[in-house]
User: Fold this.
Amino acid sequence: MFFIVTAVVTVFGLGAYAGYLHFLLRKKERRQSAAQLELQEQAKEKREQVNASIQILAKSCGVDQLTFTEASIRIRGLLNILSVDESIREEFSAFYQLADATAHIPVLAEWKKLTRSEQNNLQREREKLEQQHREFVQSAAKRILGRSF
Assistant:
């Protein structure tokens, strides 16, 4: 009789402990699920912000608000942040091509280090490159409007 009572108490104790561990596991899974949903929501919001920025840049492209070069550099960077497919990069290759063609031109502090003559030469070169890519970039800017990636 003693062994039976001991066995029942032991089984009941182990069952209660297993139930408690199961409860803790479910609680942990719910927390992880909630955290994952929040991360997904934050990623979605960030993606929407980046897409909105692309739309603003495309609308401003070549409208005296933003040079084609600056718009191309920024849009390329934002598309890269979104890790778009190769097909999207190819569709909007105009931004990539102009950004690459002008990549050697210094910006910000490096630009200020240049002499006035060097700045003028690079400015003319940038304008020439923009003129060569103008239609291609304008077409890409029109096609990207309203798109979400």
About this structure: The mean pLDDT is 95.
